[in-house]
Specification:
- This protein is of the alpha+beta class and 184 residues long.
- It has a domain of 124 residues: Aminopeptidase, CATH 3.40.630.30.
- The protein contains five helices and eight strands; from the N terminus they run E-E-H-H-E-E-E-H-E-H-E-E-H.
- Helix 1 packs across helix 2.
- The chain is globular and about 40 Å long.
- The two termini are 23 Å apart.
- The model has no long low-confidence stretch (mean pLDDT 95).
Length: 184
Amino acid sequence: MPTALPHLSTPRLQLRALEAHQAEVLFALANGPKIADNTANIPSPYTLETAQAFIAGVGEKYRASECLNLGMHLRDSGELIGMVSLRLSARHHYGHLGGWVAAHRRNQGYAAEAASAVMHFGFAELGLQRVGSQCFGRNKESARVMEKIGLRYEGCMRQAFLKNGVYEDLLGFAIVRGDWEQRL
């Protein structure tokens, strides 16, 4: 696996590692509406210290083949509008997509554009066999993103995740290498 974090381009986005000076922007965006509520691992409140530690650890996690975390930056302005991730299981050749988009940039196709690019990188550059994702059953927007980029719905794990004192259903989606290759 490569050791340098990739820099991926899409028609409207630059997907690249965050820099230390972006911690305050990340801190502000990650505290936005629905970010922590719709994700499994983002704490609320999201502190500046959390943002700084996250940014500092991104390179190490990628070099350890654990996770690829890239900021979604608008190509025209460089504005950070969200994050996209691919948690890796080298043993199983599997990647788990995740991410979020800031409230003021939602419903414009950025999540699908970023997730599609990271999925392509996982198959083409990391040699993955399978890319999948999950979302809470109530998160219809994330489910639409997964289907839009070609992940197939694989089922619902009822009450599989305890979030803020509520048992949440998890919807599972995935695509395997052969299906991805047919889409090219």
